[in-house]
Amino acid sequence: EVQLLDSGGDLVQPGGSLRLSCAASGFTFSNYAMSWVRQAPGKGLEWVSGIRGSGSTTYYADSVKGRFTISRDNSKNTLYLQMNSLRAEDTAIYYCAIGIQGINDWGQGTLVTVSS
Amino acid sequence: QSALTQPASVSGSPGQSITISCTGTNSDVGGYDYVSWYQQHPDKAPKLIIYDVNTRPSGVSNRFSGSKSGNTASLTISGLQAEDEADYYCSSYSTSSTLEIFGGGTKLAVL
Question: How far apart are CA A103 and CA A48, in angstroms?
Fold first, then answer.
């Protein structure tokens, strides 16, 4: 059974940093691209970032480019999102997900709140 | 990159059919057959119901169907049921600087 366990969400001040993790199991992690998708409270879905299975290629939404870094450790079956220079508008539930298009498997989400 | 355009809300009665539109540009919806649709119930993670414009994942009811014409993709739900009441999002591959973009979402009410 595929499992994605998101963690790392917290309350952080504007300008601060946070690292999210996603522990994957039940599939061959290194064979799949992965994404982070977020949803602000009461708002729609926003694709944030993606990474190919090897980790060699990464992609970012314009809204986070230069501030967020996606990475993966295939030896640990873990996906990461390093978030720097956080802003109030980054407040959202962040979902780890398998794939970039046609995402069939999602984590449970982890809440990031950016507020002073 | 702006989100794909969806109606904010649609409604229908049990047993009826409804269609939700998703309008983009030649750089996303119109240029590629990589449109997906997701259903999201309150406080739940999204669920994939259509990918590659018109393909249903295993286990998804055949009451859900997808299509595309030009820069607009559509999701049709036939034989509406109470449990179909949810938010629906389209997404598409994009050649803009953002690789994948979502629509703003459509709230479906089953009256």
Answer: 13
